Each structure stands twice: as structure tokens, then as C-alpha cells.
Amino acid sequence: QVRLVESGGGLMQPGGSLRLSCATSGFTMSNYGMNWYRQAPGKEREWVAGISSRGTNIQYAESVKGRFAISRAEDTLYLQMNNLKPEDTAVYYCNARQLSDSFWGQGTQVTVSS
Fold first, then answer.
1. What is the phi-psi region of residue 42: left when phi exceeds 0, alpha when psi lies from -120 to 50, beta otherwise?
2. How far apart are CA 13 and CA 24, in angstroms?
3. Using one digit for the tens of pLDDT, what is the confidence trace for 56-86?
4. Cα–Cα distances in Å, from 48 out to 1, 2, 7, 25, 28?
5. What's the average model confidence in pLDDT over 88-112?
């Protein structure tokens, strides 16, 4: 059974940092490109960052470039989020993708507010 379980979300003040994790099981994560997406209230889900199966290709959305860092190790995906802003408030989702396969986690809430 494929599982992706996000954790690490919470409430943080602007300028603070959080580290999200996505623990995977039921598939060989090393064969999949991995992504983080987020969905803010009333908005569509948007792509945040992606890392290739071997970790050699990393890309970020312009809105988080220079503040967020995606990484992967064994069966876990990470998103280090620094200098958080109120507009980063959203539910963050982990995604695994390979050709026609696409798996999603249930999401973790990140709220940035003073």
C-alpha cells in the first residue's frame, strides 16, 4: 500500500522557519521525482518545489526561491522553509511522480501569523 505522510507543519511567526517531512512507504521512492505543492484557502493547489529521482535536478517556484530548500534521503522527502511569510500559509502536500503514476499525501497545515 502506497503511503505518503507529511509532518512538521504548525503555527509560526513571520520570519521563522519550519521543516516539513514526508515519510513514504509502499513504493520505491528512489525511482520517483518528488514534489511539494501547497493550497491556500480559496486558491488552487500550486507547485512549490521539485527534486528529481536522483536529486540532481532541483527547481523552485519563484515565490519561494531563496527561502525554501527541498531535499530527499532514503524514503523521506523534506522541505526546509526559512523566512516564512504570511502568504506561505497553506496546506502543504507531498507528491511522488513517475510517468503516469502520481501519489499524494494527506497534507500538513502551515500557518504563518503574528
1. left
2. 29
3. 999 999 999 999 999 999 999 999 999 999 9
4. 26, 22, 16, 22, 22
5. 96
